[in-house]
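Risk register update: the risk of archive-format incompatibility is retired. Evidence:
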Amino acid sequence: MSTHAENAGPADNPADVAQLAGLADLSATTLLRFATAGSVDDGKSTLVGRLLHDSKSVLTDQLEAVELASRNRGAAEPDLALLTDGLRAEREQGITIDVAYRYFATPRRRFILADTPGHVQYTRNMVTGASTAELTVILVDARNGVVEQTRRHAALAALLRVPHVVLAVNKMDLVDYAEPVFAKIAEEFTTYASELGVPEITAIPISALAGDNVVEPSAHMDWYGGPTVLEHLETVPVSHDLATCHARFPVQYVIRPQTAEHPDYRGYAGQIAAGTFRVGESVTVLPSGRTSKIAAIDLLGKPVDVAWTPQSVTLILEDDIDISRGDLLVPSGDAPATSQDIEATVCHVADTPLTVGQRVLLKHTTRTVKAIVKEIPSRLTLDDLSQHPEPGELVANDIGQVRVRTAEPLALDSYADSRRTGSFLLIDPADGTTLAAGMAGDSFASKTAPSVQADDEGWDF
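Archived output:
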């Protein structure tokens, strides 16, 4: 996940910053990843279309295609929702089914936007879109207020540790731009989301159809003195600073040219998942526990003294030790504990259920190991955050707690500490289908289910 500070580097060492200043023309300080969510017909796709249109981020041929499709449907004005609803089924039904990614930019910042579905049966798609987001825009229809799906999306934003949430109270034109309507909805949502642990909530009254407070301030709501949606997106500080997190480097590839020019070169390539690494720093290789020091760092073909997330680099160590894809390099003084027993919250994304005793593959960063689902202590009901103990299985769109036993030790951080190194996937070993997305450690949900021991044949670790 790219954030405001991920490429900012260590501020206490200007020489390090100067050394890399010429290596990246586009800095992550200009990039924001955000997702939209909301109940059905709250206007998510219209908001995204309006945002793209009014910020001049729509190509001429795209706009012409939307105008033609709108005329064919009998609409007098272009239906801006068609800019994101790209699937035929989406256009026919007027709903969003899949996550639609859009890339656009303004002079102040670049954006990666994930427009996620609002239907309950597409909860897994919202999890996919928001898992890497630094901000989530949750839409509410001003006529309906906070509904069950609104609370569900707020809970998912809290569960996925999204740092910033924007409450966009849409269709204010249909309630005569009344301030009391907005104030009541904003207070109810803020109270609920704050109880879930959402760290920052910004409420904005808008009309996506008319363009009020989306890109330009509304002339109909002079009682509102806050930012427009685009202004907030351009100025929100992305405070989840992975550059200051526990340093983690998953090895993706071992480089051994064995040429006349580089007969003894042995480099470990990959993307820094979190933190900062420096030449001369002592590192530990997990899960083996062997130690060495960083002899050199190569970045874009040039040697550097320091590198930080999310840069892709090659680390060269002083000692020739056995390191392969999937190993994790960490500072020797900040090594996480390794374990074969993983407790996590998962969102089940496959159509086939996840059951107790099921054999799976667990993929964490670049490492994939065999595992068994030992327990499913509870399933979370997002409507009221209650726990259904011992469900026995999780089906598509379910969110629940699991205990997994792996064949080899893994070094997982808590998801609350690092969304990059605290997340994993459960995969069907038969066909490679992704079964569930996992977040290690405790969620906001309480653990109420008793522990149950399982005895499995075959993959019994």
